[in-house]
Records
---
Amino acid sequence: MTHATLGVIGGSGFYEIDGLTDVAPVEVDTPFGAPSDSIMLGTLAETRMAFLPRHGVGHRLLPAEVPYLANIWALASLGVERIISVSAVGSLREAIAPMHMVVPTQLIDRTNTGRPSTFFGRGIVAHIAFEAPFCPSLSAPLYAAATRAGVETHDAGTLVVIEGPAFSTRAESLLYRQWGADIIGMTALPEAKLAREAGICYAALACVTDYDTWHDDHGAVTADMIITNLRENTGNARRIVADVARALPEARDCDCEAALDTAIVTSRSLVPADRLRELEPILRHRAQSEVVTR
């Protein structure tokens, strides 16, 4: 059954969850190229789940090389209504220590290579509201599951997303602290924006692996440090994701699904037919109404 309601974007082993049944890979062709890898589908407590390794199996893709458009389109085409993003982050605060987790509430965009960040353009214009980039109705059960797992978890915070692949300079790390950022990563954008355009709830489980480069008493972040600490937390992350899957209500009680209701400004009659076909999974929540909003 090539259908799922909960998507998980993270490492390649997240589908190895106790109790997951009917596990099978599915290949999805998208108008934006291939997703990062095959999508693994499975069932947990009657919840159909789709697992996508963000960087591909074996971690082959740089943050800027991740096919974000294809990934979100593929999940939307499978019927996914909620996405949990699992990723490693650095901490910009003393109180947020390595091996803690954060369920962030805000984003600062410091990507700078022109990562494609919208499904729109080429004949159809939309401007989504993005003042609250993470869905509170999904973030709340995610935080609750993390605390039940016994992990020190912070239920708010600002995530600054940098381009990478290099880590921050010390001056940049100190600057982000002055801006009020709490954690730092490389992949939540444009992922969160695209999920919002698709009407999909999006929340993040940020696994803290280091203190970036600002801390006087800790060594500067390295790839080996991240891999080692993230490996230790992978089991916790799997349990947390499974707990959320079992606890989620079937119906959503947030505004994410209606993100395009006040966003699209182009009359349907003016949108090229091929663009409407391309964006069918993204426009699915507006299938019964005109594309134009004003």
---
Amino acid sequence: MPRIPITLNVNGQAYPLEVEPQRTLLAVLREDLALTGTKSNCQAGECGACTVILDGAAINSCLCLAVRAAGKQVVTIEGLAGPDGLHPVQQAFVENAGVQCGYCTPGFILSAVAYLDSRPTATEGELLEAVAGNLCRCTGYGGIRQSLRAALAHYKEGK
């Protein structure tokens, strides 16, 4: 199959690539760019483990063709922390036991960041609805909910 030349802008860096038209963004991130923080699980958009931020919106990278992401801004969990340390939502998950095995954590964090960046005054219910597409098989969601509350409080204080 012929390859298509594209440029993916991932975590602030441009990557010129040649990809097959049917390859997903998830496959390219994990296999070509070695950004394995984006998890591969259901391959059907059901679990949220593959969530990335594409031009400010949380998406399931397993459902997005890489060619559709060309020229857009992609943020993965690897690109979220800054030079001063973890992103506040990442920090909230660390401080509030929002992880167990950690497999679902990047998806939860990126879904929350995308939502809170666009709606910093959201209610807790709205934030919980925004991450409803992210599933965890290990926890009872208690630590995740507490982490989301802490992240929401941080945003409401003015980020």
